[in-house]
Sequence to fold (397 residues):
Amino acid sequence: MNFTKIEGAEYQKRVDFLRGKMAENGVDIVVGFSNLLEIAIVRYYSGFAPVNESSAIIIPKEGEVIVCSGQASFDYCEIQNALPDSRIAILPEIGEVSGFEYDTEGQLDFEELFMQVKAEHPGAKKIGFIGRLIFPAIIMNKLKKVFSDCEIVDFDDVHYEQRIRKSPAEIELLKTNWEMVSKMFENVVPKIEVGMTERHIEGMFEAEMMSLGAESYVQAFAPMVATGTQNSYISMCRNTLRKIGESEIINIGAGVCYEGYNGIICSPLVLGEVPQKIKDAVMCAYDALNYASEKMVPGTPCDVVLNAYTDYLTKYGYIDYCPYGSLHSTGMLECEAPTFSVANKRIIEENMAICIDAYFKGMEWGSFRVEDCYLITDKGAKRMTTYNDKAIPKIFK
Fold:
């Protein structure tokens, strides 16, 4: 595996690109916020992702960028912040959520920091913010108070649109993730045995990903091991102490995070004799993904891909078990905006990283998911996670 990193020049390019969009929209300052649900907003522009705290970033249309840390992660921020021409501020509002108080020299609150920023950029008339679903009221209220004469606008869509097409450096990191998650499945699945609990299997995946070099599991969920008729009947879950048995569905979803980027695989498994009904359903889902992925050629509207998937399931009688046909961007989050839908007809473009997700729900024997990661090349979609391509035909055909 190629263990590369994003360098400071790449972060500067991202800030410069955002500043171009700010100029197009008449925005003078952008304030971004990250927490453990969306850790990537600040990390995307600086390389900094805190431990047990939130973070923020203030990007003016020109001049010094401010990377904001809580008190506990300040020293780590000094090491991790790779953005040239930036400074670090320590803010209690993004510290540990219990409100634990540190006597840290040099810290400000956000009202004081925003007053400094206003003094540095006295002509500001329009402020953009990133993180609409997580931006805290305590920070937003101080932003509105200090910049009471400014228009404050949602800049989320601009940010996520920037992230959807990957740079060469990002693609190299994603390739590492995709190789890592593929090896993890190849190494762990053969060791799974009847009688193990879901949590035992979760631990096997976490141990393996760390040994391969991951920094953590995918930034969306810990490994999910949903088993049997009842436990598999859910889209997202926390694992239990249920012991797995023979000839029942085991639905595994696991991913890795390396240098802030993510790789994911979802794959069904049955130990022992595989019932024919499960074989038929899994192979249909697998074949439907292959059929749909062939349509993912640059310049193609995404509704062509999604309709190909649902048409295939309709033809073979499984459409009633398909709650949705999922096609989503992936990168610094396992599932990133903007969405691909039949309604928006977003165009497939080269250098996008996309997951296709076949979710079959509610059959009498349970539910399962097949998911893989694809890179859009100039010739079409290349499946980058390799485990399912080898394992599913071997187990279920």
Observations:
- The first helix runs from residue 8 to 25.
- The chain has a mean pLDDT of 95.
